[in-house]
Amino acid sequence: MNPIRPAAAPRRSRTRFYLWTTGLGAALATAFITFAPSTLSPDSIRASFAGVINPTPGGLGPISPFKLPIGIVAGHSGNDVGAVCDDGLTELSINEDIAVRVKTLLERQGYIVDLLEEYDPRLNGYKAMALVSLHTDSCHFIDNNATGFKVAASQAGTSAEASQTLAACLTNRYAARTGLNNHPGSVTWDMTGYHSFSEVSEETPAAIIEMGFLYLDRNFLTQHADLAAQGVADGILCFTRSEPLTGTAAP
Known about the structure:
This protein has 251 residues and is an alpha/beta fold.
């Protein structure tokens, strides 16, 4: 007795199904390529992907790995002009110029930076990796020693020791970058008792720097603001990166 052969119909059905689905897929692919908008071309897709990796100005920007920002106060901004020279040059104009430069330098290193005014309401309870307030000194002749910079650290809150480290970094790196002398003996009560020290969060390390005298250091502050900004940025990076204080800043 001959064995019963399986029915052939199911096999032919499966074959027809595969052929049908393959043909449909080819037809859809052809239609997609033919009628798809130009924005889906390979070049445009690569460009879009590049835009995600390297965001364009005005976009969302890169995602910072740091949870807290760095605060930069442009001294006297939003309040008054600070010291005024006989020809109209103001401390405020110097402070704001250098503050913007510092912000740019730190953002290039991936940090989130808040540019703050003197009595900015955001300072109340402000939490940051560091807060640095930028100022410049008198525009009147005092004596031939009234040149250079000085730094004071916050003594408020629970970050007094960290604030001292921040001030030490600023002092070390600013001197190395600018070549200006440090004058710790001329630190005033306005610096040690700076109002923002008691306004920000107790956990925020803070310091204030007088970047130079508008009289004897005028040329440096106006013609070499980039060096002043780099010196401040160097000091902040020294602190956030826990760099040693020995040695000098990179050229």
